[in-house]
Amino acid sequence: MKHRLVAADMDGTFLDGRGGIPEGFWDLYPRLARAGIVFVPASGRQLATLQDLFGPLGQDLNLIAENGTVVYSEGEVVSTTPMRARSAHAIIDAAQAAPGRMEMVICTPTMGYVNSPDILDEVSTYYHRVSTVADLHEAVDDCVIKVALYSAEDAETVAAPLLRAAAPEERAVVSGKHWVDVMNPEANKGRALTQLARALGVEQRNTVAFGDYLNDLEMLRAAGTSYAMSNAHPLLKEAADRIAPPNTEAGVLTVLESMLA
């Protein structure tokens, strides 16, 4: 089977244990291009953050950002999937009334809005364009694509149930031990992969996906061939066609090298 599009989650999958691009990628990327393989970062991170991270590759990038709510191809945003404004307002109210520390980022395709300096250290890795507002409700409009919530407690057992109850029309996806993303239920990385493949003229059976956490599940199911990292959540390992070495050992690069061999 000829692989033509490779989508890789970032944190815990493609990036190394320190959150950096693994050594060897910059030399590998042009070899993938010469072989006719499009490499696509697919992340819960902000579009601007991915553009900064992969800036050396030039403007003709293909990116899946904000857990699939933003799809970017060759210099322009080709798809966004906004959530309901009323849901965003309900999430803000529920999180601010909840016990324990919960901080939020109200996400639009171009900006993330926060209302506390306490969260800036947590979000700076994932959101490079951030604006502080006095009241998060003021940042909510029809362009909101996601509410990202940081919980000091476990996201899967504490924060996610709270958010699902507050915004039943949306979908709450656990994206890390302390992070939950709430989005339009139609939005996910799998749908974004399908949209991007169609835009690039790539058949779904010729796509490959790598992931490690629950927000990658639909992407693995949508891909022609799927890899869960050896450090992945158990549910991803069950869903994947194959297991890749851990991100701390440049597992994605190892598999890509084998594709080119």
From TrEMBL:
<dbReference type="InterPro" id="IPR006379">
    <property type="entry name" value="HAD-SF_hydro_IIB"/>
</dbReference>
<dbReference type="GO" id="GO:0000287">
    <property type="term" value="F:magnesium ion binding"/>
</dbReference>
<dbReference type="GO" id="GO:0016791">
    <property type="term" value="F:phosphatase activity"/>
</dbReference>
<dbReference type="Pfam" id="PF08282">
    <property type="entry name" value="Hydrolase_3"/>
</dbReference>
<dbReference type="InterPro" id="IPR036412">
    <property type="entry name" value="HAD-like_sf"/>
</dbReference>
<dbReference type="InterPro" id="IPR000150">
    <property type="entry name" value="Cof"/>
</dbReference>
<dbReference type="InterPro" id="IPR023214">
    <property type="entry name" value="HAD_sf"/>
</dbReference>
<dbReference type="GO" id="GO:0005829">
    <property type="term" value="C:cytosol"/>
</dbReference>
<protein>
    <submittedName>
        <fullName>HAD family hydrolase</fullName>
    </submittedName>
</protein>
<keyword id="KW-0378">Hydrolase</keyword>
